[in-house]
Amino acid sequence: MATAYQFHQPQSSPDRENFRANSGQESMDNQEKTGDRLNALESTLTYLQNDYDQLHETVLENTKRLEQLKLSVDRLILRIEQAGSQGSEVRNLEDEKPPHY
Description:
This protein is mainly α. The protein has a domain at about 50-85. The chain is built from one helix and no strands. The longest helix is centred in the middle third of the chain and has 72 residues, at about 15-85.
């Protein structure tokens, strides 16, 4: 006795069709939101990269200026030491009167 087995296939209902339509719409909304968030993140990253580049340039300039100032201080120290070793008297500005006296 052979009986044919029938597979149950759900019939399409209006609720099921609405769910599919809404799911597609929600998916599109989520994709738009994700795209907007991605654009905002990329924009923020671009600004941060620009800020980083500017700060890096400032640090390089300050480092160069600091090296120049160190050289100037070293030269001044050398001049003071040479003036003291040559026997010339180093002026004490506290003992001198200002020019308006």
